[in-house]
Write the structure tokens for this entry.
Amino acid sequence: MSQKIDGKLLSALSEKAEAEARKLIELVNMAEDPSSLELPMREASNRICFYLQQIKHHNDDVLPTKRLNDFWQSHRCVDMDVCNDR
């Protein structure tokens, strides 16, 4: 399948998702109390899913790499309407 999303946009959105995943790992490594992780982990997953959804939106509902698909599955992302004005 050919990629529809602009390469620069894909790179920017992918890097945002990767950065959020790195921050999440750092947060988990630094946390001493598991209960303090619940909300930050949910928020990080929401941000990761947002960036992945944007990629799908601009790429015929397809994540173009295995890594991005793995993020989608591991953060339990769900399809949503990212542009309410369409």
In short: Residues 17-74 form one domain.
